[in-house]
Amino acid sequence: MVAFPKSPEQKLIDAVYKSYEKTENLSFSRLGASGIGEECIRKIWFNWRGFSKKQFEGRMLRLFETGHLQEDRVIQDLIRSGKEVYFVNEYGSQYEFEHDSGHFICKVDGVIKHQDKNHLLEIKTHNKKSFSALQRHGVEKSKPVHYSQMQISMYLGHFTRGLYVSLCKDDEKYYIERIKEDNAHQKSLIKKIESLINARMRPTGISEDASIFACKFCDHKDVCVKETKPLFHCRSCVNAIPINNGGWNCDLHGTLLNKQQQLIGCEDYQAL
Ligand code: SF4
Ligand code: SF4
Fold first, then answer.
1. Is the confidence metric ipTM above 0.90 for this complex?
2. What does each C-alpha distance from 125 to 67, 143, 210, 216 come to in angstroms?
């Protein structure tokens, strides 16, 4: 088939999307609340240790940004409706709660006063299909990853209640659910965090050959079945050990590794 040259308008659209892609470099972060409810513990560990990195196209990155912008609008809606909402702490920063190890962090959307009690606030947007399932089955059943995110944030932030505020992107409908603390679930998440931090080899995944449906869209599929090697840097090396206060140590050289050094690796690298 003959490829037609792109029109100036199409080139402009491409340039807009491309502009979103420029900031997408490899960087390391801590384990986070938003992913801790993922079914596959190996996937969470691969994410944290940067085994592979999905390069999102600009259109998708713009879509993620739209979700964040909607959160601000939702907060303004709640304030206009008469609610007390606190979305930054006394230092003007987003509310954050850490696990004692320093390797796990919850960044929350805010705190809202509801029924005379402070509630942890979590805001999510959904497409129509996801929103309908949420209305039918509730957060715990239809959005287990969000449920876990709220439970661990409530636990580490010392809240007994949370408010899940969701908006349908297709028709601006709201669904709001009050979430109670679930001690058994919270304890299981703490155990999960600790086993991730203490793992010295690949944790067991949900499938040995990544053949099941749940693996189909996993960003780490190739590295999971050892078709490709992990990205080269300290975090995917057997010698990089998480230590106190969110720090990392090279067991071979006996040196602390800051984030910049972790990105570089060295000639003694040994893939996990
Ligand atoms: S491919 Fe499957 S088993 Fe492997 S990390 Fe991803 S979800 Fe887990
Ligand atoms: S400094 Fe070298 S040996 Fe140590 S963790 Fe990094 S890559 Fe591995």
1. yes
2. 7, 12, 29, 24
